[in-house]
Amino acid sequence: MYNFVFQNTTKIYFGENQLEHLGEELKQYGTRVLLTYGGGSIKKIGLYDKVMDELKKTGLTVFELSGIEPNPRHTTVNKGADICKKENIDVLLAVGGGSTIDCTKAISAAAFYDGDSWDLVTHKAPVTKALPIVTILTLSATGSEMDSAAVISNLDTNEKYGLIHPLLQPKVSFLDPANTYSVSAFQTACGAADILSHIFDCFYFTASKKMDMVDRVMEDVIKTVVKYAPIAVKEPENYEARANLMWASSWALNGFLTTGGFQAPSCHAMEHELSAFYDITHGLGLAILTPRWMEYILDESSAPQFKKFGVNIFGVDESLSDMEGAERAIECLSDFLFKTLGLQSTLTEIGIDDKKFKVMAKKACRGDVLQGFKALTPEDVENIFRMCL
Amino acid sequence: MYNFVFQNTTKIYFGENQLEHLGEELKQYGTRVLLTYGGGSIKKIGLYDKVMDELKKTGLTVFELSGIEPNPRHTTVNKGADICKKENIDVLLAVGGGSTIDCTKAISAAAFYDGDSWDLVTHKAPVTKALPIVTILTLSATGSEMDSAAVISNLDTNEKYGLIHPLLQPKVSFLDPANTYSVSAFQTACGAADILSHIFDCFYFTASKKMDMVDRVMEDVIKTVVKYAPIAVKEPENYEARANLMWASSWALNGFLTTGGFQAPSCHAMEHELSAFYDITHGLGLAILTPRWMEYILDESSAPQFKKFGVNIFGVDESLSDMEGAERAIECLSDFLFKTLGLQSTLTEIGIDDKKFKVMAKKACRGDVLQGFKALTPEDVENIFRMCL
C-alpha cells in the first residue's frame, strides 16, 4: 500500500511578464531553436511576436514548424524530426496547448531516431535520447506542460496512443494565465472536462486504497475546476479563474495526485478511439463518455465512491442511500458538463453514429479487457459508446 | 498576483522495501559515500544494518559521521566537511530526521569551502558547489527531505539561521513510513506542530491574496495532520497514519504550497531564537508560540482568516462573528496541540524564563521588524514571548 516513486523536474514560471526569462532558459541548451505551434492563434494574440522578440534579444537562431493539428499526427512529428536533424536543432520551444506540446515531445525523441516516429509511439523502437523542451502554455487542459507523456494519432490506421518517457518531461514551462484569455468558451469547457477526467481516471475513482491526503487534494483540484471553469467560460479575461484552471491542469497530471495509487484511465482509453476515428476534441469526448461510464459501472461496490464525489463536490444530500447518492452525483456531473459548461451531451450531436463502435471497442481494450475502476470487456465498451448516442 | 517560479527535482521513493534502489541511486554519483546520522536510533531500529547491507552489495566505500545533534551545530558541519575533503567523498547519505538532513546539506556545500562553514550560513561566503545528497527519512516534521534549506545553529553565538540554495536540494529521498514507527509520542507531536507551522508561516495566514486552489490544498494538508497525528501518537505502528504524516511533512514545504504567495515565517523566526538559546525541540517551540502569536496579532483584519481556519479545520460554528470565531479557532488549536497531542503549553514548563527575551526578540527581528501576516517589532516579539510563560 502507498508504494510509489515520485519525481517532477519541470521548472514552472507562472504568471505575467515571465517571458523575460525565456532567452536565458533556452540558451542553457544551445543556440538553435525549433519553435513549434499550431494554427496561428499565437499570432492573433500577439504571443508569437513577443516570443520572437525574446529569442532575437538572446541571439538565438530560430526555425519554425507551424500547423500542428489538434490530435497531432505522427506525420507532423516526422516533419519536425526532419527539421531537427537537418538544422542541428539544440532545443525545442513549443508554444500552444497540449497538442502542440505533445507533438513537440514526440519530435524531441524522433530527432534521434532514423525511422518513422510511429515506431516510437508503438514501442517498436525505444526512446533513447531526446532534445530538451521548453513550453509556453496557451490552453489549460492536458497537463502536458508538466508531465512526460505525449499522445500521438495515426490517421492512416485510426490509432491514437500515448508515448511516456522521462526524457520527454519539459525542462521549463511558462504558464501565463493571460495567454488563455482568447480560448473560446467551448475549448475552455473541453479543457475543464479533460482536467476532471485526469483526476477521475488517475485515480479518484478506484478500487484500490488511496492515501487520505492525496484523496483530499484530488477533491480540491476538482472543486477548483467546478468553481472556476464556469467563470472562465463567461468571463474569458478573468485572471483569477484562468490562473486557477491553469495550475489545476498542471497538478491534475503532474504525478502528485497519482502518488500511492493505481492508474487505469478507462475513459481516456475509450475517448482515444473516438478522436482517433473522428478527430473530435479530446475533452468533449471525455465529457460525453464520463457520466455514461459512471452509470454503466454503477453497482453496490462503486456507488459509495460516486456518492462521496457527489456529496463533497456538488453538495449532494449525505443522507441518501449510496445508490441514490451515486445517481444524484452522476446527474450533477452531467448538469455541470452539459448545462453549466454547455458542452454537447451526445455523440449523435457531433455526427458520430454506431458504425464503428465494435471496432473501436475492441481497439480500446487492445483485444483484452480495459482495466480501471471496473474492468471492461469490448462488449462493455460498446455498450457505453451506445449510451452516448 | 500569483507570479512565482516553482521547481522541485527531488526523486521520492515512498513506501516499504524501496531500499533495494539505494545502491543504484548512490552509484550514479560515485563510489565514496559519507553516511551521516544522529544519536544511533537508526541502529536500534535496524535501519543502519539494512543500509550497510545495501551499500556493501553495491560495492560502495563508506565513511561515517555520527552524533549529529538536534539543532545541528556548525562545528559538526565543519567535521563532516573535513571528512569529505580528506576522503574525497562523492556523495552524502543522510539517514535521520531534519537535523541530520540539514547538517548534511550544509556539509555538502562546506565540502567545497576552505573556511568555517558558519561563513556559508551567514552569507559571508557564497555556496558555489555542493556534493549530491541522498536521504532516508526517519522523522516526519521538517520537510528537509524535499526542499533546499538547512537550518544550522552556532552555540558560541546563540545563532540559528537557515541556509537556502538550490544545490542543497536532495537528489533522492527514501520515505518509508515504517521507519518512523519508533518515533516517540513527544517527537511525533513536535513533528506535527512543525508541519502545521510550515503551512501557517508559508503562508496560510497571510495578508496577501492566495490562489484559491493552493489555499484549499493547504487546508487538506492541515486536516491530514490534525486527523493522523493523534492516531500516530496513540498507535505508533499505524502505517496509514505514519504514511499520511510523512507525505504531509514533505508537501508542507516542498514549494507547492508557497506558489503564488509571500513567505514570511514569523513563528519560525521567533522559535529559532528559543532553540538557539535553549536548544529545545523546534516543533515544541513552534507549538508554544503559535497560539500566542495568533492571539497577539488578532484584530479585525486578521480575524476573518483565523475564523475560516477554525471553521474549515475544527468545525467552529460559522455563524459566530469574525472575532468570536477567531478566538474559538485559537482555542481549538491550543486544545489540539496541548491536550490532544499532549505537548507542554508554556515556556516555564520547559525551564525557560524571561531573562533573554529582550535579546532574543531583537535578534528575531534582526534589528528591524519581523515581516509576516503582521509586521512585528522587537517589542511585539518580546510581548509574545512573555505570553508563553
UniProtKB/TrEMBL annotation, chains A, B:
**EC number(s)?**
1.1.1.-
List all membrane-crossing ranges. Answer: none
Return the protein name: NADH-dependent butanol dehydrogenase A
Q: Where is the signal peptide?
A: none
Cellular component, GO, one term: cytosol
Q: Where is the Alcohol dehydrogenase iron-type/glycerol dehydrogenase GldA domain?
A: 10-177
Where does this protein come from, organism-wise? Desulforamulus hydrothermalis Lam5 = DSM 18033
In this chain the Fe-containing alcohol dehydrogenase-like C-terminal domain maps to 188-386
Gene designation = bdhA
Q: What lineage is this protein's organism placed in?
A: Bacteria, Bacillati, Bacillota, Clostridia, Eubacteriales
Q: Does the keyword Oxidoreductase apply?
A: yes
Q: Does the keyword Transcription regulation apply?
A: no
- GO molecular function term, any single one: butanol dehydrogenase (NAD+) activity
Q: Keywords of this protein's UniProt record, alphabetized? A: Oxidoreductase
